[in-house]
Amino acid sequence: MGMSVAPFFFYVLAIAFLGVFCSRGLESVQAGEAGFDVRQHLSSSTRYEWGKSLMAGYEDPGNVPVGCTPIHINLVARHGTRGPTKKRIKELEKLAKRLHEVAAQAGNTAPAWMRDWRSPWEGKKVGGELLPIGEEEMYYLAQRYRNNYTEIFEDDYHPETYPIITTQVGRSSASAVAFGIGSFAGRGTLGPGKQRAFAVVSDSKGNDIHLRFHDTCMAYKQSKKYRMPAVEKLQAEVYELVAKAVKERLGLAVTAEDVSSLWLLCKNEASLLDIVDRACGLFTPEEIELLEWADDLQMHHLKGYGETLNYRMGVPLLEDVVQSMDRAMATLKDSNSETATEKARLRFAHAETVIPFICLLGLFLDDVDVKSIQSEEPFQAPPRPPKHRVWRGAMVAPFGANTALVLHKCSLDSGTGEEFLVQALHNEKSVSMPGCNGTHFCPIEVFKKHVVAPHLKRSFESLCTVAVEHQPPERQSWFHRLFVPFYLFRWPGKPAHAQSICQSELEL
Ligand SMILES: *[C@@H]1O[C@H](CO)[C@@H](O)[C@H](O)[C@H]1NC(C)=O
Ligand SMILES: *[C@@H]1O[C@H](CO)[C@@H](O)[C@H](O)[C@H]1NC(C)=O
């Protein structure tokens, strides 16, 4: 049970911590802390430019070794900035009513905007679409890749040279198109921009195990459902804490639920409309950091390192990446080869795709422990602010987040031979992989052995098949009321579907 102990202690500590220290540090806070910009603290709702700015000074990549040329890029990108989804639009409409009540109750002390506030998205019947700002993120991202990797993007367009792959979700496929326009503008004959038409392909929604495994891996969906209440409890504790502080400071009778919706509003106003003095203005920087942390915790537990299945299920994507590298090397080595030379494999998907991919590569880890990466154990949850943490949603998975593996061909000093090095970029910045001993340029053999191979021990099927699926939602057992994390009751070494059965048996 070794693997389960650390996260469990975390839960106990976190709950105790929030309980005991709940009044600590929140009263004496004033806004205007030097350099604090809420737009860099919106977790996965952060716009790309702000998320990218956080990568500055993250690591010093050093220079590309002499004699190396990039020959292939594997890209995994999240869609660009999008509008709020339908569910969130509804939530914000409800919030309007609540804010009027809160403002009326507070009288003159209520902020003026609150009294007659209406959601900017009121009455919208569709949501979640890629916004113009999101199109621009993808377009200019493509142009930077193209300018920095001229060797990769210099060929004539062909769908086998530059496959563009997306999920069947509008904002992702629109992101793929915006990236394609940026990549091939000026290379065709269409219109004044000399556009080139390009192909965008996807797996069907129900079978997409390469980019939508969060939706096709049944064991994950089940495990997420079981783990969700415990995570929501952690978040609710933060909202409670912040509600109390806001009430004391501003005299506004907000509930934890209101704070949750106001945080949603703050994220959308700041990220999409650059409004930072309304909903966001109700919170101090310290409170915003707590709210951000609550989002990041959820990301850790349900999408990231918090549970191995979260990223193990990304194995088909990892295999696809390695196979495309193998093909690129094989065609280079054999000049008579019949296969087309693929130069870049460009994928457009979701936070639920990029985050697991990052975890498979071992990026963004505190106190890097290569052994635990290779044994795929869950890691410590990100520490509560003001403690520093590496795992920040704003940096890991803002809108437009992109992780690329660049394959370099390098001639060896000794003369004839050549070697292939893999470099990881996150949001365009070179990052080291712990499995590669913290280096930025990792020999392909080391990459395969220490980064990839440990994850290939299990197949998608063995991880994701759910043999028995029954969970009466009304019957909340003692097990759930205690908010014990699901994986405490896992049997290490058993495949996920067997564990799901154990869980069901415990239930009934
Ligand atoms: C391209 O180079 C610019 C300038 O050095 C840099 O800011 C940007 O992050 C790079 N982007 C990529 C995709 O390499
Ligand atoms: C990893 O790096 C350390 C320190 O630079 C070095 O001593 C060690 O030999 C390296 N290990 C491998 C496998 O390259």
TrEMBL record:
Q: Which Gene3D superfamilies does the record associate with it?
A: Phosphoglycerate mutase-like
Keywords in alphabetical order: Cell membrane, Glycoprotein, Hydrolase, Membrane, Signal
User: InterPro entries, per this entry?
Assistant: His_Pase_clade-2, His_PPase_superfam, Histidine_acid_Pase_euk
Main localisation: membrane
> Is Cell membrane found in the keyword set?
yes
Task: Work out whether the entry's keyword set contains Cell membrane.
Answer: yes
Enzyme Commission identifier(s): 3.1.3.62, 3.1.3.80
Task: Classify the source by domain of life.
Answer: Eukaryota
**Reaction catalysed?**
1D-myo-inositol 1,2,4,5,6-pentakisphosphate + H2O = 1D-myo-inositol 1,2,5,6-tetrakisphosphate + phosphate; 1D-myo-inositol 1,2,5,6-tetrakisphosphate + H2O = 1D-myo-inositol 1,2,6-trisphosphate + phosphate; (2R)-2,3-bisphosphoglycerate + H2O = (2R)-2-phosphoglycerate + phosphate; 1D-myo-inositol hexakisphosphate + H2O = 1D-myo-inositol 1,2,4,5,6-pentakisphosphate + phosphate
- Where, subcellularly, is it found? Cell membrane
Top EC category: hydrolase
Span of the signal peptide: 1-25
Query: Cross-referenced PANTHER family, in alphabetical order?
Result: MULTIPLE INOSITOL POLYPHOSPHATE PHOSPHATASE 1, MULTIPLE INOSITOL POLYPHOSPHATE PHOSPHATASE-RELATED
Q: Tell me its family.
A: Belongs to the histidine acid phosphatase family. MINPP1 subfamily.
Q: What is this protein called?
A: Multiple inositol polyphosphate phosphatase 1
- Organism equals Sphagnum troendelagicum
| Organism taxonomic ancestry | Eukaryota, Viridiplantae, Streptophyta, Embryophyta, Bryophyta
